[in-house]
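Chapter review: from sequence to fold.
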Amino acid sequence: MKVLMINGSPHAQGNTSIALQEMEKIFAQEGIETEVLHVGNQDIRGCIACHSCMKNGKCVFNDSVNEAAEKFRQCDGLVVASPVYYASANATLIAFLDRLFYSTPFDKAMKVGASVVVARRGGLSATFDELNKYFTISGMPVASSQYWNSVHGRLPGEAAQDEEGLQTVRTLARNMSFLMKSIALGKEKYGLPEKEPKQSTNFIR
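The token string follows.
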């Protein structure tokens, strides 16, 4: 099994990375492969609603979003981690996720999702909610932990001192591992849930 981990921080070795590394240790113990994509320091533009991806199966802007698409298709779980800016995720990460989720045509149902947020003090739960919405609109079960998946730290390395935060993300990785393995067994025995044809309602009529 494989988990794709998205680091939305502009700092490759910052506090967000510390949280992801703590999860990687648990995934390794569980026999789950991980790959980290560092996107927070890249120049990623937002979606322009051109709908080219509907025809071509990929985003019209050929950057790291298209590079990540196949990795996303193949993974069993996705972890998205971000620092908190004004009670929101890093804008670069949001641009990346908007385009990644919208431009990829494959079914994301039953891939397990988890978000991790890092801040000096506040805005964590708002950012946590923001990131989880990408999973819940895509039929992806959301892994939970013993608390909201948040770690505190401002200066580089301070997150290593947040014992509760690190325990929370370790627990998250264990729960996520269990959920992915359980879903794999369920698929084998029962298959995927039946899907109805999608209904779209416009509220202007």
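Two observations follow directly from the output. Strands lie at 2-7, 33-38, 77-85, 88-89, 112-119, 150-152. The two ends are 45 Å apart (CA to CA).
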